[in-house]
Amino acid sequence: MMLRRVVAMFDERSGASPFVVKTLRYLFPDHWSFLLGEVALYSFLVLVGTGTYLALFFDPSLAHVTYQGVYGPLRGAEMSQAYKSAIDISFAYKGGLLIRQTHHWAADVFVAAIVMHVMRVFFTGAFRKPRELTWVVGMLILVTTLLEGYVGYSMVDDLLSGMGLAIGYGVALSLPVIGGNLALGLWGSPYPGDHTFESRMFIAHVFIFPVIIGLLLGLHLTLVAARHHAQFRRMRRQTNQRLVGVPTFPGQAPRSLGLLFAVAAVLFLLGGLVQINPIWQWGPYEVALGTNGAQPDWYLGWLIGALRLMPGFDVTIGDYTLVPNPFWGGVLFPTIVIGLMLVWPWVERRITGDRRVHNLLDRPRDAPVRTAFGAAFLLWVVLVFFAGSADRLYVFLRISYTSMTWIYRVATFALPLAVFFVVLTICRELQRSDALEADREAAEEEGERALRAASPQPLTPGTERATAERP
Amino acid sequence: MRRLGRWLLMAIVAALGWARHREGRGADADAGDDGRIVPAGDPEPGAEIAVLLLLVAATLCAVGFIVVYAIDAIGNQTQLLGIAIGACFTFLAAALILVGKRLIVTEENEEEYPPAGHPEEQQELVQIVEESGSRFTRKRLLMTTGGAATAAVGAALVTPVLSLGPWLDTSSLANTPWRRGLRLIGSDGLPMFADQVEEGTFYTAFPEHANHDEIGAPVIVVRLPPSALRLPAERAGWAPGGVLAYSKICTHAGCAIALYRTPLFPPTSSKPAMVCPCHYSTFDPASGGTVIFGPAGRPLPQLPLYVGGDGVLRAAGNFSGPVGPSWRDVREHPT
Amino acid sequence: MPRAQLARIVALAVLASGLATATAVAQPPVGIVRPDPDKAARMSPLQLGAQLFAGNCSTCHGGSGFGIAPAEGRRGVGDVAGAGPPLRGVGALAADFYLRTGYMPLGKPSEQPQRSRTLLHDNEIKALTAYVASLGKGPPIPSVHPAQGDLGRGRELFTEHCAGCHQVMAQGGVVTGARVPPLQNATPTQVAEAVRIGPYLMPSFSKHQISDAELQDIVRYVQWTKSPSDRGGWGISNLGPFPEGLVTWFIAAVVLVGTCVLIGKRVRS
Predict the structure, then answer these.
(1) Domain containing C169: what range?
(2) To bridge A262 with a disulfide, which of A81, A232, B234, C259 should be the other Cys (CB 3.0-4.6 Å)?
(3) Do residues B294 and C176 lie in contact, with contact meaning Cβ atoms separated by under 8 Å?
(4) Torsion over CA: B6, B9, B14, B15 (sign)
(5) How far from A376 is each of A411, A413, C58, CA to CA, in Å?
(6) How many domains does chain C fold into?
(7) CATH (one of 1.10.40.50, 2.102.10.10, 1.20.1270.360, 2.60.120.380) for B174-315
(8) Between C179, C247, C261, which is nearest A274 by CB?
(9) CA dist A390 to A114, A185, A384, C237, C242, Å?
(10) Domain A31-287+299-359 falls in which CATH fold?
(11) Residue-level pLDDT at C90
């Protein structure tokens, strides 16, 4: 009774009941890989929650202070107010370090989940008509997220973040023609920049980028819902026109909510148990200081790999520097990678000439060229990514850094090419064996039908049952 | 808060289902024979009890979180807080997944995909836009003018962004605080005496009275045997007694040249070099900072030195080129 | 491109990486040439040191530690072309460092000395150290007391002078041309000795540049990095983003994908 009154109350004032009913009975096709996007979404929720908390304590100021806090090895050190406030979050406020570490882990996991989600969407062909816009919006989310993460760990002003910012400045400067103007505009003055640069990063990290990501996420989900999920063909009633799935409520809701809590559990457990970015150990940044093994967070590892692999040259015309070196690895490489992914739906349309609507997903083998290209492309990026950690491998494995650089310079182009053909062959072989299997089944069915036509009685009761039960 | 919303949602749905049931509408596509929307299933008391226990465990963990937070005497707070809240979420996740798998009836429904397009509405849209403009006679001109106005307004609104920095004047990129006669001050704050600079090691120095945060300020100072120097001819006299000073900022991406390698026994190992820890650009101090490995596209700028009457190292001028990463005009700035 | 050619390129790349590994890892086993135990027992430490030096060091460092320039190319044990710096005046400090870290004896003079198990007994190290010290006036083994050092000052000095190569938490790193060792296994004395010597490609720092008191601060800091206060939990080797990425992919991503599989399998066809 109570329930009825509440529903009536809200419906008569909002008129939302039909919409709510529709939402509750919206269908989710069932496959584990469709949940990867949800993992990303829930990581983002954790990021917003923990980030809001952190913003209450972080002080984006470059004012010089002398640390006199609880952490011994830094006592008496000169540092910026921003760095000190991040140290205080880690040491002085109860629970602060848990939230800070959870926030950082959530960022690392957020991007990892996006990458896995993108791979699922790519290799199953889910980006095809009518979902190209969803794909494009997703790519924009990925790009914004990379920037958001970079600014996030850069504004703490510890030794690692300062070195990362210097590289960002070098990459900005390296843009042909406008680089100098752009870098000066963003930083306000030559590196390390105007003292307001810190608050510029702060507002970008806590407002501009999160709002953009939030809006794009909303658009992404709206587009998904508008065209409904694509589906694998697990059973015959799933067709290009008909969707079979679990309704939001009651089927999907507890599972999805369970996943939300599982994501939160993993992130908070990592946040409490595994140390991430211990800024107090890196110490404060000064332009004249540097540490070996300086790496960006994992999701920018492909860029440091590309920067390190480039042979040393600037492209010049007389005294005019057309292309400074960091451009190749820091701008051109990511532009090619992201750009190619952005336009892939249309590239594939051009190659296959296929303009139809696709609600049924491919298995990777169903589209050998796409799968082979995807595998080669992924390997290309992954190899460059690994090249970014060659210095650490040297320490562990004792393979000389210079030889590794040369091996990677060759391997990043040779291996993907090889993998393209290998994967292409594997897919085609799988397809051939699939076709063979289908032929065999069809022939069997044909034979059985012929037999049944010849004699009114089935051959054996068992055969009939087996035939009838095949979906 | 989110849970509250979820409960509310659940309540609404249950109510809706009930209302429909009572009113006997039941003509929904999802409806079964008995007029239900959600199909019936058997109770699973075991699963229900398990969910109950998991919820209790989650509650206890949440309380544990508060207790750990409240009691200062507990060590390793971060870890315990993380375990408490992490376990709490784990139990909640387990409870919900169990509800989803055991206590909610399995239903897979069918639905038609939305149509690929709506030709009628598309036609309507086009018509509305076209007919709305039927009174205009100079459409193209108006469109152009409108576009120009939009662009101008956009530009006007964006203009204040120019205050962020000297977007148009990039001359400041080549600035450094070094001038002829400035003494080199070591990182200990004391003037650097030429005869105290030793071979086989490196020093960081700054110009006197300068802001250490400028990238133009820090230099790396090393001494090589004068016989080993292969400086360009025009830099003769830049390295008194073999003492060399180079910008400490890498010409590739602006990190500090924090590595100096110098062989203990030169015949069997690599020659001296200054190395950047970010991308391992490697510069040769003997030949004027030329790049011998890595991605840097420009030699390290060298600071000419002389020894003052007091024996202190002084800059004999500005660097041999602009400091830091390359940009358009980096090779056009005389220094 | 024909497939055969492609295969050849791949094979070449694999081969090249294999070779690089082999040359980097290869350290020919070095045996110690020692006098007969009975005779050794009757020798004074200096005599024993002289004997050991003649048998194990003089190929590269020359008789009486005068050093050998590569041009002289003396062939010694294992047909090694000897080349090594003179040891007159390096003092007990250097001998103690190189022998206790296992840096010496070195298989090939062109190779980077690496920390390894020392094949010499303690009394032999003492004897050799005494012998090398007797070759010329040189610094003694430094005595450091890390407990008396200032941790904060040590951190600053280490960051400025050492972190570029050794990484700010002393986890080691890379300089083009050499592997920079982590300092987790270095004793306080060895750290102090290395700072003064500058082994292989490392710069050396005299007392003008880093005073004995400052050196003590640095050693205190290096000691501290061996068990830093990892307030955040498991320190994952204090290396920063590199292990963090591994945890993200090999722990977090694996667990979450597992959860997805668990949840997603609700309905079976």
Answers:
(1) 146-226
(2) C259
(3) yes
(4) positive
(5) 12, 10, 55
(6) 2
(7) 2.102.10.10
(8) C247
(9) 25, 34, 10, 17, 11
(10) Cytochrome Bc1 Complex; Chain C (1.20.810)
(11) 94
Read off the CATH number of the domain in which C167 is found.
Answer: 1.10.760.10
Residue A462 backbone phi and psi in degrees, to 5? -60, -45
Confidence at residue C25, expressed as pLDDT on a 0 to 100 scale:
47
Nearest residue of C to residue B284, measured between CA atoms: C176
Write down which residue in C76, C110, C134 finishes a domain: C134
The CA R_g of chain C, rounded to the nearest whole Å, is 24
How far does the CA of residue B300 sit from the closest CA of chain A (Å)? 13
Query: What pLDDT digit, counting tens, does each position of C137-188 carry?
Result: 999 999 999 999 999 999 999 999 999 999 999 999 999 999 999 999 999 9
Q: What is the mean pLDDT of residues A323-352?
A: 96
pLDDT along chain C (269 residues), means of 10: 52 56 46 86 92 90 86 58 87 96 88 91 94 94 95 96 96 94 96 96 95 97 94 94 96 97 68
Closest CA to B285 of B296, B270, B271, B267: B271
Chain B contact for C94 (CB, 8 A cutoff): no
Q: What is the pLDDT of residues A59-80, one digit of tens each?
A: 999 999 999 999 999 999 999 9
Q: Of A102, A40, A74, A104, which is closest to residue A296 (Cα–Cα)?
A: A104
C164 domain residue, yes or no? yes
The C-alpha atoms of residue B7 and residue B1 are separated, in whole angstroms, by 10
Q: Does A214 touch chain B (CB under 8 A)?
A: no
The predicted pLDDT at position C79 comes to 58
In one-letter notation, the amino acid at residue B207 is P
Buried b (16+ CB within 10 A) or exposed e, C195-211: bbbbbbbbbbbeeebbe
User: pLDDT averaged over chain A?
Assistant: 93
